Amino acid sequence: MAVFSDPVLQQAAGGVITSVVATTATRLGVTLRGLGNRALKEDEEIVKWFNTYRITESTPQLSELPATITRNELHQILESEEFHASIYELLAARLTDAPDREVEKIRQILESVLSYSTPAVDLSDLADALFGYYDNEICSIVGRLQGASPEFLPRLRSEAFSARMISALRALEKRSDSYRSADPKLDRDFLRRYRNHMSEEYGKIEPPDFDRRRRVPIGDLYVTPEITEMGDPHSSPIDVWELGRRIDRTVLLGDPGGGKTTASNVLMHWNASRGDRVVPFLVTLRDFASQDPPERSVVGHIEHTLEVVYQCSPPRGLISRLFLAGSALVIFDGLDELIDTARRAEVTAIVERFCTEYPMVKVLVTSRLVGYDQARLDDQYFVRYRVGGFDTPRVSEYVRKWFTQEEGITSEEAESLATAFMDESASVSDLRANPLMLALMCILYRGEGSIPRNRPEVYEQCASLLFRKWDARRRIHTELRARPHVEPALRHLAHWIFSRQESDSAVARGALIRETAQFFHERGFESYEEAHEAAEEFVDFCKGRAWVFSDAGTTARGEALYTFTHRTFLEHFTAAYLASVSDTPEKLAKVIAPHVAKEEWEVVAELAVQMKDRSTDQGAARIFRSLLNDRRYTATESRSNLLCFLASCLMSVDPPPSIVRELCQSCLSHLWRGNMDNPQFFGPLLLLIKCGGTYREIVASELTSKIDQLAASGNASDRIAAIRLAVWCNPRSGTFSRGSFVSSGTQVQSFWDRFNESHVHRFTAEILEAAERDSGFLWLALDRGLITLEQVLKTPEDFEKLTTNGHPIGVFNTRWSPYLPTQAIKFVKAAGEVTEAQKQEMAVVGKYLRERPSPPWVKSDSAHWVAFVSPRSNHESLQPLEPDTFLGASVLMMIVVELSGDVGFRDGSPRDLGYLSSLFPYLSKRVSPELDVELPDLPVGEELQQAMRLWARRQLDFLEERDS
């Protein structure tokens, strides 16, 4: 056996373990976050150890390569998803103490992977050598894990977070069988054709338009939205390409028209266009779940779609083999389009069972934010991301790209139009932040030279452009017998499609004509035969408009299927139907109430309220009053949903102040029915503060009245609750995700900041008293300067609670990060903005540490910090800190690293640490012990200098284990 000396192959071989271990750590990390208090400190340490694992100089001992396989071919095998899957299965087997027969299956599968990749070459000896090497490496890892925490492996084997590894082992037999009948040449030929087809199919996006169908290359129009991880307030925004790299078990949530489906299509193209990425498959859930129960399995549905829609039948067993090997991505698009919540929950269960059957496959599920919680995927395995609205730079980029695509205008004219659009739309920046609404506004601006100011007007102008102006130019209306009934028919059909029992919004042409004929017969045609002929004409008329009906495939008998091109239009016309058939606002309230109470139809209901308010005197006020007084929905969840809906409606309608006052009183009464940290109780009030900007004075007066009432009561808990509300009732508080993305304007935000500040001064004495026993009030007292850090920092217990413990505020389910590390991080993240007061606080910490120079200084806890270090150009001009200030900030930063590992500096440079740039080699050495770096002298005392060097070499910790 000779040493495998090729450096490129060494890197690939070593990288397999690194990649597989990092993937395992990420999956365990997601699960541990979901386990909450059940996850012990050592579990987090294990996950950190996984993430920072580095292959040393060890390389596999391999015989000489067969002459018929090249270095590049072996390199590709070692980097393939199929090979990584085998190593992951081997790691799962050793971590879960699987029997030897399971390990032998994995060895056989690894040999099958090599044979499948190079069928003409006998690589059995090479397979044995590789398997032996990786098994030895993994056994060493497992042994070190057992030594680091003897309880970890037994708990891993018994706790829920081993489920995915066990699923991987249970799938071994299926994966082994999948290679027996495989024909590598047929598979490769199919994948080449399929990738080419998908790359072409999804390489262009189709923006909404009225007079023509346009398919524009992705790069010429697409603008990636900002995407953030939900549930982690410290996470940094990413783009769609980074999301593509992170997908494992992933959910992408967003608002209507926010770009979820477009992102799915872009990810399809991104993965299909390169052979070294996973093979992407798109499952449109409204098609998959068109029958109850679904007609086919997920794999069967994909195979059927490939055969019928794309005329590209896959080789037998290939799709399952790709899923079992982790070589595929399945995008389940449009969970929200399953209108019935029970049906949505059934499909969610199917997706979870699919993930269990195919534990290696990558999965992305898209859904609207509203209603997701009613059928959410298991947070223990799925990470949620949210698509945000376009900020001004993204709007500008999209608008310039959009006008550049216009035919018949020069680049200078396109630039001029884009500039004028940006100026005119500045007053409705909330509307243009939505990608679909932005596209519609561009169309309207092109045709009308003006921009509507709310969504109903946008849709109404769209209809006007289609039916009264553009079609009139082409004289289409003169040939349409049912022209007077076109818009009423669209409303009727939209409601029929939206509310029928089937979850699929696609309708067969025959059914669509029959429903339309019935509608016409009851109105403008005496004979059914005439109505039927007019209905055929109408359907053909609508299918020719890209924004009304689009082809959605065919039935099994070959009959054409149609659906509304954009769900937003389906919802608009459904809302118009509800508003038109409800004679009074009270009747409309009764129609929407049962759906809103179940968190259904919220977009449709809000649009209907807007329309009724515009067509009926005091329409919104009467709907609000009816819903507020509706005694059918008094259960906590139903009442919370109704109040949240009404609070959200304040973004689009303007009921009288008395109604808003009544709404606020109802929200406060609801809050006091339960736990102030439970979203079902605090959600309506928080949404009212976020959405009721123009009514802020009324809301503030009702809040003050409630605060006064409780503060004057003899009940101590009520008094403290009132103070919490007084000082933290603010749009910035809470991470409650409900309804459309709302960004409070600076004027609204400043108002609530002043509201809080006035009550801080009013209740200063009570806050200081509460701060002695309540961590949230302590944070507030320090942040507002009601007490100095020197007054607080007297004992190790005080230092510890400000360093490793979060600060729950007791309302809106908000917990501020530990106070001292948060302040220290500013010396890195926002160095140019650090104030003298903050420097003084770090000096107090430095003095405290000098007086206690022997670590550990705190007991370890479960605090975790994500990456926050990033290059900042203003770091070069920073003046050196005073010694005590530097010491305080440095030790706190080192504690953060000890708690969390790399926080983003590993690939950076010293300057990225701002004021703490000289600490860079110490932190680098701590997270990567193998690094050979010099540890320069720091401006601290000799005793502390020695402690910091030992810390960097992992010979000393600044934290000790907390007693269980």
UniProtKB/TrEMBL annotation:
NACHT domain: residues covered: 249-405
One Pfam assignment: NACHT
Domain of life: Bacteria
Protein name: NACHT domain-containing protein
Organism in which the protein naturally occurs: Streptomyces achromogenes
